[in-house]
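Practice problem 4.
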């Protein structure tokens, strides 16, 4: 199993920035990414990155504001969130799979992801 532990969530004012971390351990993975979810709604794809190459994908709602990166030595991925909006408020979950495109494709079937973290809450106040 791949174990994913998110951190870095909290309360931030609109227009501010926040950095999330996802520490991975366990069996081999090729890509890590982020989904976000509001209670009673379906998960939304945020970003994903190839752990080997750094090639990244972004969801339309965050492209240009969020940046995903990875630290191979620490088996950790980061999500730098800038220009935050109240609409960004959600529980942010880390996810693992074999390719960034696979993570994005599992937006409607997150149960099929190789791994899914418990999430960290980001609250953006207006």
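Answer key:
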């Amino acid at each position: 199993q791949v174990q994913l532990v998110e951190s870095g969530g909290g309360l931030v004012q609109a227009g501010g920035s926040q950095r999330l971390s996802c520490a991975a351990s366990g069996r081999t993975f090729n890509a890590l990414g982020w989904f976000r979810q509001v209670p009673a709604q379906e998960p939304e794809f945020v970003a994903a990155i190839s752990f080997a190459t750094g090639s990244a994908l972004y969801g339309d709602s965050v492209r240009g504001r969020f940046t995903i990166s990875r630290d191979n030595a620490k088996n950790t991925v980061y999500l730098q969130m800038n220009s935050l909006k109240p609409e960004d408020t959600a529980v942010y979950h880390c996810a693992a799979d074999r390719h960034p495109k696979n993570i994005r494709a599992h937006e409607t079937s997150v149960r099929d992801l190789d791994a899914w973290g418990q999430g960290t809450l980001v609250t953006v106040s207006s």
